[in-house]
Amino acid sequence: xxxxxxxxxxxxxxxxxxxxxxxxxxxxxxxxxxxxxxxxxxxxxxxxxxxxxxxxxxxxxxxxxxxxxxxxxxxxxxxxxxxxxxxxxxxxxxxxxxxxxxxxxxxxxxxxxxxxxxxxxxxxxxxxxxxxxxxxxxxxxxxxxxxxxxxxxxxxxxxxxxxxxxxxxxxxxxxxxxxxxxxxxxxxxxxxxxxxxxxxxxxxxxxxxxxxxxxxxxxxxxxxxxxxxxxxxxxxxxxxxxxxxxxxxxxxxxxxxxxxxxxxxxxxxxxxxxxxxxxxxxxxxxxxxxxxxxxxxxxxxxxxx
Length: 305
Ligand code: R5P
Fold this sequence. Notes:
The chain starts with a strand and ends with a helix. It is α/β, with parallel strands linked by helices. 31% of the residues lie in helices and 27% in strands. The relative contact order is 0.12. The strands form 3 sheets. Strands 10-9-8-11-12-13-14 form a 7-stranded mixed sheet, with helices on both faces. Bound molecules: ribose-5-phosphate (R5P). Ribose-5-phosphate is lined by residues 167-168, 170-171, 201, 218-226.
């Protein structure tokens, strides 16, 4: 087994390699003056299983192209298979046609991943549980919810005064799953409306009984609007302490600043997406998914023996 890393999240790739007591294999990623990339495998890998770690977060287009080129390079260099570990799968939100005339971006991505020779995909907290069905190759869909449950228990947040809240109806399944990991912590949800043309978010109402503390759970934080608007509504409804857990810190625009200035007291995310130092803020805690991903390879290598 050989582990390769694209340039989108090398710290995570290093942690995964460390968990597996191995090193990242050398890969040349040359950037031409016009920004185009050339990828070259720098060691003998004939007959080896190649693992490529590359979340396709911002800049998604560049990170996808790198992933495609690495997959092509490892296959041309004789790897017996290529597994893409894409903890954050870019373009997954456009998984169907919302308005007439749109492209289905996810489907284009899936076709290309398969065409460049990727044999298996490992992803984390996909936006919809239906996404793996779009692929013809096997997809392992991992989740950060067990990590979140562990942290909630460590904080000593109890079912008696805490409610798990989904910031939109689409996330209720996620919140129910976390509730099951926390001896049925009570749940509630928020009715969110997003204007598809402007992206403006409104939190219209709460469904369910609230407590002193709310823990909001989502797959990702991008602009931060979903969480911030929901927190304002929870605050208006008397919630005193609001924490949020989101797997993917996409953090576009002014998200870190806005989250820091919001009613939210703690923001928990994972390292599926690399966070530059400039995007850290005092309320932020980053949990690592490296062990969860590494376990996948340990388990599989046992099954394969
Ligand atoms: C949407 O359905 C997702 O689950 C997230 O709620 C959304 O992508 C978060 O985006 P933002 O932070 O820009 O509101």
